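Hi Q.,

Before the meeting this afternoon, I wanted you to have the pyridoxal-5'-phosphate prediction in hand. No need to reply - just skim if you have a minute. The sequence and ligand are here:
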Amino acid sequence: MVHYLDHAASTPVRPEAIEAMVPLMTENFGNPSGAHRLARSANRVLDEARETMAAALGAKPGEIVFTSGGTEADNIAVFGTLAAHGGVAVCAATEHHAVLEPVEFSGGRVASVLNNGFVDLDALAELLDSEVTLVSVMLANNETGIIQPLGPIAELVREHAPKALLHTDAVQSLCWIDVACAAAEADLISVSAHKFGGPKGVGALVVREGRTLSPLVRGGGQEKGRRNGTQNVPGIGAMAAAAAVTVAHRDEECDRLGAMRDRLVDGLRAELPDMVESGVEPGGDRSAKTPNMCHVAFDGIESEALLFLLEKEDILASAASSCSSGAQDPSHVLAAMGMSRSLAQGSLRLSLGYSSTDADVDAALTAVPAAVRRLRRFAEQEPSTLDPQEATHG
Ligand code: PLP
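Predicted structure with the ligand bound:
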């Protein structure tokens, strides 16, 4: 039996989404921009999906722009704002690469975070001025699950950067947070279907009425010219179906998975007392984290080896250390939170989702301590070659 503990990477497509999607590829396959009845029917699917997504996100239907996913929504938010208004973009150091890269590429400013993962409001205030046209701070972090309180950030933006739009990447949020409420002060909100039981390659950006962005791709004027290109009607229909079920069951799922996550983290700590939980002191409060996220780190081991041993036990997880430029690079999120390089290199993200069961937690509680102990025993026999100077990085 496979224990899938990587729902933050992608969660299985919900049956309701598949049911909504299939007829949109077989019978109702028209191009929504056309003039005949199949086209009108496809367009009705978009209208209904716009209403569902708007209700889920606390927006008006006309404020929903369908995109090819979270990355595109984030890129439209940053580059679309800069193209329309000029100026400078600012984001937090712990943003997903889909925000961080566009901000850095455009010569923007990056605000530091505190050790608990919250944006350092004093540091942010220093970066804000009348030149700033976009501030992007994510709602829930994809590695740690830490939820940023957007209220104080919106206040700072209004005070110090009055021209700026506030964008929030809510890609990891819809399953766990009432986005309509938590992101009420944001001008732009990104979501991605495959994080809440829809298919990959489809998402949405909320663009509040009156806010103007330039399109990144020019074309046939779809999505009121804000995102050109024929819409992914099957994906959008499936995304709306997934969003509706997600929101309807959110409260009970938060309770169920929150209890499972606590059992998982507390159980791991009982076995491995020196384990570090990102953003939370031992015995501390986890209410600032999404209830699905167990994100921990073990000194003296490498995530890659841990994941290998776990996969041999049919446990599929991730390290959440973005190793795109080489295995030695620790996650930029953990580095920004001040975690030492050696500890960040032993990070493990076990993320739960709607299909998670107690058996998944039981399996992880057996396999993770055994694997960590095995790797530590191995490391004692083969002393680490890591430069001790490096171990205090961050
Ligand atoms: N933003 C966050 C916080 C994410 O976790 C992800 C995906 O992992 C993205 C953006 C990118 O979304 P997508 O995979 O739909 O491009």
